[in-house]
Specification:
This protein is 46% helix and 13% strand. The chain is α/β, with parallel strands linked by helices. It has 3 domains: 2-185, 2-Layer Sandwich (Chitobiase, domain 2), CATH 3.30.379; 191-490, TIM Barrel (Alpha-Beta Barrel); 515-710, Four Helix Bundle (Hemerythrin (Met), subunit A) (Up-down Bundle). The N and C termini lie far apart (80 Å). Residues 4-45 have low confidence and may be disordered.
Length: 720
């Protein structure tokens, strides 16, 4: 048995609880109302708080609380995995200023394997047993005397017990306290994964990927699945991987080694059929493309199979886990080029299934199970039956469908294939994730998968558009972890109340309410029949499309901005709370809120400018209006002018975006996004300069150009 000692915080700080802060907070939810009541009494965290865990254990009995004024003793066996779990707990407590001693009266946490006689004795004394579903990753937590026991059959089970203990201990230093509980817990799904798109712009640093893995493991995910199109470096094919934006073999080896300690298997996704434009755009491969410089490999070309075989031979050596993901989704070009005759004579589905089967057969010597995206195959249930039965179909759907999710899974289940389900924590091209949609989709899809026998969940994050900030996605990522561990439909309100404390150590309710405000912002735009996509953020309000959206957004712009600004205030207040964690994610969340707010501001002010200039132009010949026209021009473009406001807005958001990007991703690709900020800043600089010049010329010559000459849309000239 080893004892894990630990010391005071390196700074010597004891992290005292914060007193009654932010009493003026808007109490718009139950959690905030509770916070306001506590705040008015001069209190902060309270041992009387309800236990809120992510994921929620399968069985839990709350037995009260116990203060930890003397810290914690952590004991484990000398097994390397158990020692790692013990140190993982110790490091977490150290970050909260909680200390332990090698001996003394401190409360003990003891990690025990089920095979140890002491574990059997403790379980028998408390009349607890291990059921069959608990053996691989399950655990029992119970308090006996002055010791909290974490008992499991495997190292993974002990590790997951530790992750729950982390959430059961709250407070700082000598004021820390423990929820005393009895828990029997195990996962509903064997494979609980998170996909991350590494091929459409942002490419994470190795340091950030390690941070992701630590967070995934803390909430009991056991698979990390990086998605590659052209961003994995191959010795046999060095052309396609972009320098500075791809993973080397040494990167992979270090990441896999790191993930193993956290009981996470890295499952690589390398597209092997579609989504290969960034390879096929090279002249070296043009003969393998279904259409010239297209996106899909031509199945009839012998070199196509040779290329994927070479790739996956290297992938299999780099990633020692049991799975390879071959993609094979959205092969929209198939049948439009080299296979046009084959598709016309045989049908699209047979040509598609035949090539997927050939890929499978060519990779048999690697002794890996192959996963593939299920979207194309699900449209042809009969053809699915021809696929090799050892393949795993990953059904994906990112919004709530009419009639439920069964039809995404049943074609593969009926064909005898194992299935995983893939919802999304962020579909890409979004200003900020639409978490109302995402949570409801995850809940429905994962629970349906459990009911129909799916063995895994692969939650997804996509970076379509190249502007993704992963630190904005944790809300959906953590709910996916909860939904795949818990049985049935994971309770969404329960998760919403637990998130702030579990991920940010925020017990005030502010982070939770800010997330609700951002969901409300999405709903406001949806009510106006608009989607909070990046295109809306970049759209020019004076373009024809922009004028169409102006008519939609102006009636809701006030409510949109108020929801976003409420979120900004709450986030800023939460960041000042003692002990707040994952501050980078809060900054990324605030970036999303500020972009939402700016959308409303941009359309409001662009319309105000249109109306003001149109009025100026209509009254240009009236002598009495000349001084007023000069004054108006300064409102449009002067110190604190509206053109300058929009320039400044894009400039501020550019800086915040770049800061958030570089916290997690390499510089590769960043300029492609910041260039759009620069262009929009230049647009409003140019417009402001033109308006001021027009006003100056008007004072000298009496001539004022019509609105359309300055890029303003034509409208009712009398409107103001």
């Amino acid at each position: 048995m080893s004892t894990v000692p630990w010391q005071d915080s390196p700074t010597g700080a004891k992290h005292p609880l914060k007193g009654a802060a932010s009493k003026q907070i808007r109490c718009a939810s139950l959690s905030l109302a509770l916070y306001c009541l506590m705040s008015s009494s001069g209190l902060s965290q309270s041992p009387a708080q309800k236990i809120q865990l992510i994921p929620t254990p399968q069985e839990i009995h709350d037995e009260g609380t116990r203060s930890l004024p003397e810290g914690v003793l952590i004991h484990s066996s000398t097994d390397a995995d158990d020692v790692f779990a013990a140190h993982d707990l110790a490091n977490e407590l150290l970050s909260r200023g909680i200390r332990t001693q090698t001996a003394g009266a401190g409360f003990a946490v003891e990690l025990l394997r089920l095979k140890e006689p002491k574990a059997a004795s403790v379980l028998t004394r408390h009349q607890l047993t291990f059921s069959a579903g608990m053996h691989d990753e399950g655990y029992v937590l119970l308090v006996d005397g002055h010791t909290l026991y974490d008992i499991a059959e495997t190292s993974a089970g002990l590790f997951y017990g530790v992750q729950t203990i982390k959430q059961l201990i709250s407070g700082y230093g000598t004021q820390a306290w423990l929820h005393t509980v009895t828990i029997r817990d195990w996962p509903a799904m064997k494979y609980r994964g998170q996909d991350d798109d590494l091929s459409r712009g942002p490419f994470p640093t190795l340091e950030y990927q390690k941070k992701q893995i630590q967070a995934f493991a803390s909430f009991k995910l056991n698979i990390y699945s990086p998605y590659f199109e052209n961003t994995l470096q191959y010795a046999s094919d060095p052309l396609m991987a972009p320098p500075g934006g791809s993973m080397s073999r040494s990167d992979v080896e270090e990441l896999v080694r790191f993930a193993r300690h956290y009981h996470i298997t890295v499952v690589p996704q390398q597209e092997a059929f579609g989504h290969l434009h960034h390879t096929l755009m090279y002249e070296r491969y043009t003969h393998l493309s279904e259409t010239p410089h297209g996106t899909v490999l031509a199945p009839g070309q012998p070199g196509s199979l040779q290329l994927t075989s070479e790739w996956f031979a290297e992938v299999a050596k780099m990633f020692p886990g049991p799975f390879l993901h071959i993609g094979a989704d959205e092969t929209d070009d198939l049948g439009l080029g080299q296979t046009k005759r084959a598709v016309a004579s045989r049908g699209l589905a047979p040509v598609y299934m035949d090539f997927v089967t050939r890929i499978h057969d060519s990779l048999l010597p690697l002794h890996k199970r192959l996963l593939f995206w299920g979207d194309v195959a699900m449209t042809s249930p009969e053809a699915v039956k021809t696929l090799p039965k050892d393949m795993i179909a990953v059904a994906w759907q990112y919004s709530l469908p009419e009639g439920g999710f069964d039809r995404w899974i049943l074609p593969f289940k009926d064909a005898g294939l194992e299935t995983w389900v893939a919802p999304s924590a962020n579909r890409g091209n979004r200003i900020f994730p639409n978490n109302d949609n995402n949570l409801n989709t995850i809940q429905g899809f994962v629970s349906t998968g459990q009911r129909l026998g799916s063995t895994g969940m692969l939650n997804t994050v996509w970076d379509d558009g190249g502007e993704g900030i992963f630190d904005q996605d944790w809300y959906g990522v953590l709910y996916g972890a909860a939904a795949s561990w818990q049985s049935g439909r994971a309770d969404i309100p329960q998760f919403e109340q637990a998130y702030g404390a579990a991920f940010h150590n925020d017990y005030s309710g502010k982070v939770n309410q800010a997330e609700m405000d951002l969901m409300q912002a999405h709903l406001i735009l949806e009510k106006a029949k608009l989607d909070a996509k990046n295109a809306l953020f970049w759209e020019d309000p004076w373009s024809k499309g922009g004028q169409h959206d102006t008519a939609k957004i102006l009636p809701v712009a006030h409510d949109l901005r108020m929801a976003a600004e409420d979120a900004i205030v709450l986030i800023e207040e939460a960041k000042r709370e003692d002990g707040i964690r994952n501050a980078d994610a809060l900054n990324a969340m605030e970036l999303g809120a500020r972009k939402m707010d700016f959308i409303g501001q941009k359309f409001q002010q662009a319309e105000e400018m249109r109306q003001e200039y149109t009025y100026m132009y209509a009254h240009r010949s009236e002598v009495a209006q000349r001084n007023q026209i000069s004054d108006m021009s300064f409102v449009l473009s002067g110190n604190n002018g509206q053109c300058q406001d929009l320039r400044d807005g894009y400039g501020l958001l550019r800086d915040l975006f770049q800061e958030a990007w570089l916290k997690e991703s390499r510089p590769y690709w960043l300029d492609n996004v910041t260039a759009q900020y620069d262009l929009n800043m230049q647009l409003w600089i140019t417009r402001g300069t033109a308006i001021r010049a027009a006003a100056d010329d008007f004072e000298k010559t009496g001539y004022l150009p019509p609105p359309q000459d300055l890029g303003l849309p034509a409208a009712d000239a009398t409107q103001r």
